[in-house]
Amino acid sequence: MTIISIFIEAFIVILTIIFDNNCIFAKYKNKDHSSLVSKGTYNMQRIEWIDFCRGLFMMMILWFHTEYYYIGHLVIPYSLYVENSLIGFFFISGYLFFPYRNNIYIRKGIYNTLRKLLIPYLCIVPIIYFIKTSLQHDFSFSNMFISVLTGKASWFVSSLILCHLYIVMVCSIRKLWVTITACSLPFLIIMNLVNSNAEIDVTSIANVSAITIFFMLCGHIYRRFEKHINNIPKITYVVLGAVLFVLKYIEIGNDIKMTLYTINIDNYLLLILDTLIWCFIIIGCCKMAHGILGTLPCRYIKWIGKHSLVFYFICGGVPRISSFIMHGITDTHYYFMPFTFMVVMLLSTSTTWILYHCKPFRKYILGIVDKYVQNNVDK
Predict the structure, then answer these.
(1) What SS3 state is found at 9?
(2) Tens place of pLDDT for every residue, the chain, 379 residues?
(3) How far apart are CA 279 and CA 83, in angstroms?
(4) Cα dist. 216→41, 98, 132, 198 in Å?
(5) What are the φ and ψ backbone dihedral angles of 116, each rounded to 5 degrees?
(6) Exposure of 101 by Cβ count < 10 A (0-12 exposed, 13-18 middle, 19+ buried)?
(7) CA distance 269 to 258
(8) Cα separation of 157 and 56, whole Å?
(9) Among 125, 127, 195, which Cα is nearest to 160's?
(10) String of DSSP letters for 47-98
(11) What is the spatial distance between Cα 116 and Cα 356, in angstroms, rounded to a whole number?
């Protein structure tokens, strides 16, 4: 895997040269992001295609969990869409991220991470953990405490929290090449440790985050090149689709593992190419579909994307409960999957709506945090 490391390091060096020298992309380097924040540019109306992408990713993840719990095994290969959907969230998070240029914005960046990710994690995950383990008659307070504290109760959200905090601190440094290097080195280190059979904890959230932070960086770079990417010919997406088809054929045909959690990845270069092409195509298609995003089905998908964090919190528990109910009503056949998935979406949507309209949570827990921020962070 040394060749892959050299390839990625060369890629980083090229990006560093592009952004750090006087070339056509140099205008991005000195962009005054603080002025954009002060003018509210980053607090404007939600970007429709981003909510739509997140909604699609979330529905794919819900289908995966439904299939796993209802059928008992995966019929559609995991590497066909699941890992891409998970990494897609990190890619979009990197796209939405912007550098923090002073201590005030760094504190606000940390605050946003705590308010939007950590507090919901601490409030919702223990409840979901209790329900899931109770169904298996395997609940234990000590196990729940350890699982929540180590982040293993929801590795995705825990990894997202760590990535956000890490990138906020790294991007406080003005040099972009420092950001690129700092977000790529953890990925290279973990990749080499895993492939050299070193003894590391593959379930550690810090180790998983070392990989996902790289894809957040890719999303951030995508935004810097976005104006040029939007002008590429549409035939490019057809060509990339054919390339992606070949990559998927290789992965599935050779049973190549692409699992983030537990870091069971057989080919890192293939993971990078597969995921980036997949994100590139999905995002491009969602942008081109702006004419239909106002239709009722698309509005529902956008609503899912807007509330995707809560959907992810419950995407394991609700499919398990729904499958438990469906097993008592119907036989386990794949042609019942669409109906089971409809039940999952109905329960997930209802639960998400209730959680978002839970006044005690919004008024007391988040209210205390907001009051603290107004008295300390904003000064």
Answers:
(1) helix
(2) 444 444 444 444 444 444 444 333 333 333 444 433 433 334 446 788 999 999 999 999 999 999 999 998 889 999 899 999 999 999 998 888 765 555 556 677 777 788 778 888 888 888 878 877 776 677 778 888 888 888 888 888 888 888 888 877 776 665 666 667 777 777 877 777 776 666 677 677 888 888 888 898 888 889 888 888 888 898 999 999 999 999 999 999 998 888 888 888 888 889 999 999 999 999 998 888 877 878 888 899 999 998 888 888 888 788 888 888 888 888 888 888 999 999 999 999 998 888 777 666 555 555 555 555 555 545 5
(3) 11
(4) 21, 11, 30, 26
(5) -90, -20
(6) middle
(7) 11
(8) 18
(9) 125
(10) PHHHHHHHHHHHHHHHHHHHHHHHHSS-SS-HHHHHHHHHHHHHHHHHHH--
(11) 12
Token pair, residue 312, equals 């992810």
The first and second tokens of residue 124, run together, are: 């919702």
Amino acid code (one letter) for 7:
F
